[in-house]
Fold this protein.
Amino acid sequence: LEKTTELELEYGSWNTKRINFEYGSGLSKSGKFSTFFNVSKFDTDGYKYHSGSDGYSAFVGLGYYDNTNTFKFTTFTGHSNNQMSWFAVSEDDIETDPRTNYNHPDADDNFSQTLTMLEYKKFINSKNSFTSTIFYNRLDGEWDLYVGDMLNFRLHSNFYGVIGNYTWKPDNFNINIGVSGNKYNREHSMVILPDTKFEYYNN
């Protein structure tokens, strides 16, 4: 684990901008703790008309280490917002203006995701170890489709569970025994904007 500090600033075509910063403490003087985090943000106007995008992400990792135990906490989160620009454009319109975008200027999508997990590893001896991990993943998103009315499709999901693994390393081979359990659920719905309360379906 090396100590690191880094800042990146970028600028490109179509007013594209990105900033990224990361820091890693390396191992503490006691040799038992470490910290790492990274944050990043970007935005762009996009090549096509009203096809901009912006987003951010963040990552945090914490660690504790001793002779027989390791604890690691990891979490990251991210969000993106994109104006829609996926409708096929006719060749005539492309020749007239290659930046033509048939999607509605107000149509966009928004998606975010967060994952958090905690890992514990026990070194029983030089040949035996046990690892357990618990995790939780959350996803939220929505996107628009204009068909005379502005349809807004939404989704939300939860995914969580636990993982266990036992490792035995004799002289000439390894044996790994693992078990896991998890639960996942996901919800889909649709509204017609500007009404955000009445759902035409939910499943």
